[in-house]
Amino acid sequence: MSKTNALEAALLDLIFLNANIANLGDATGVRGSVAAGQLFISLHTADPGEAGTQLTNEVAYTGYARVGVARSGAGFTLTGNSISPAANIDFGTCTAGTATATHFGIGVAGSGAGTLLYKGAITPTIAIAAGVTPRLTTATAVTED
User: Fold this and answer.
1) Gyration radius (Cα) of the chain, Å
2) 65 SS3 class
3) Three-state secondary structure along 101-137?
4) Taking the model in full, what pTM does it have?
5) Is the CB of residue 32 less than 8 Å from the CB of residue 19?
6) Are 58 and 127 in contact (CB under 8 A)?
7) Residue 21, strand partner residues
8) Could you tell me which of 61, 57, 62, 63 has the C-alpha nearest to residue 107?
9) DSSP 30-55
């Protein structure tokens, strides 16, 4: 069994754009948050897996921090059943250390072992060394299917 395209888009709309899902349950549907807040984007050196947290395989270089993105149209763009950042996501410039970012994560916490909501592979991977500012472009996407 799978979700319909309409439900896939509605779930992404709720999670990333804080939009209500009309007519699900009672007449008011599933409501978005009063204060939309942010989702936090992370970089990982390997797939954090289905049971992973935001800390699982997270990169660790000097200058790195997760990036908060608004749960709104200013932060994300929904096209069909696919969501992408509305603008490039730039992480802190590496001042020491090295890593290869192979995956990104989308979670609920700015630091610590927060709940990881979505994860995906980065193609091409990002080689991080001193002076490099890792970037996820607007082509980075999460697709429900």
Assistant:
1) 16
2) coil
3) EEEEEEECCCCCCCEEEEEEEEEEEEEECCCCCCEEC
4) 0.94
5) yes
6) no
7) 30
8) 57
9) BPPPSS--EEEEEEESS---TT-BTT
Of 24-33, 58-67, 129-138, least confident by mean pLDDT is 24-33
User: Rounded to 5 degrees, what are φ and ψ at 9?
Assistant: -65, -40
* Closest by Cα among 124, 122, 126 to 141: 122
Q: Where are the domains of the chain?
A: 5-143
Closest CA to 115 of 32, 55, 29, 44: 55
- The model's pLDDT over 102-121, given as tens digits with 9 standing for 90+, comes to 999 999 999 999 999 999 99
Residues in Cβ contact with 112 at an 8 Å cutoff, skipping those fewer than 6 apart:
54, 55
The answer to whether 89 touches 135, Cβ cutoff 8 Å, is yes
